[in-house]
Amino acid sequence: MSDLDTTPSEIPCAAGPATPAVQVLPPRLVPLGGPRAMTVRRALPSRQRTLIGAWCFVDHYGPDDVAETGGMVVAPHPHTGLQTVSWLFTGEVEHRDSAGNEALVRPGELNLMTAGRGISHSENSTPAATVLHGAQLWVALPDAARDTDPGFDHYAPDAVQGPGYEARVFLGSLLGSVSPVATHTPLLGAELVLAAEAEVVVPVPPDHELGVLLDTGSLTVDGTPLQPADLGYLAPGRDALRLRAGSDGARLLLLGGPPFGEEIVMFWNFIGRDHDEIVGYRDAWQAQVAGGRDAPGRFGVVAGDQERIPAPELPNVRLRRRS
């Protein structure tokens, strides 16, 4: 998904200080452009925190009635230095990218696109999608891998069941399930569905920062309550996570990874390391926009008839790296 915020701000990102408690990160509402804008709830990056492991972007949306919202219509747009992770609870979205990959995003199935040195893609809900409900996530690539070739992975994890829960592990390993999808830093990504009043103790890697995104229901994380769309952050240093659902059960995404340890600058759909890199990425994309939808360039060409989304203006200050 593109970040279509019409006034994007500079977001210098670095791993935050450890905190022993569960830090609750409420989302902010962000319309993704147009008079019938699809609105998402953005929990990361936030003023309180910019990274959880290598996870650097968490958008949560729906359930949205496509007849009212118009669904997801995101024309070709670029990315650098990151991976996009698409996860649906309800609906269907068609993905096309400039590396020639075409795929459908369906509930319970991972679509992971590696931007590397540069890629462009489009995302459009299909006629079969009457309701859209899901999450769009980004992962920052470490310096050693950020100029890698673009790529794409699809994986449909089997459900793992235990007392009071069902889990689908799409990245990393959890509860005896291991994802075969390779990542450039250690990552954890899983959907968990808890039964009403269930209490589940989940073993987790002690070196991982963790994020718990509550989708539906009611939940406490190590005793701290979350509201739907809240993202709970937990610092490294624990080997288990205690989840307790309320009377309506709960569905959540569990994200994690070791602290990233590198500074990055996010602007629009680009991740770079300094101002000049971001300017170069933007100029390269704008040159392709000016050349028309079939103009070649760093970000390639997406098959289809949609016009490319132009990049927003940069702020009138240099984008800064911060520790």
TrEMBL record:
Gene3D superfamilies for this protein: Jelly Rolls
Span of domain Pirin N-terminal: 39-139
Classification via CDD domains: cupin_pirin_C, cupin_pirin_N
Matching InterPro entries: Pirin, Pirin_C_dom, Pirin_N_dom, RmlC-like_jellyroll, RmlC_Cupin_sf
Pirin C-terminal domain span: 191-287
Top-level taxonomic group: Bacteria
Family to which the UniProt record says this protein belongs: Belongs to the pirin family.
Protein name as annotated: Pirin family protein
Natural source organism: Nocardioides fonticola
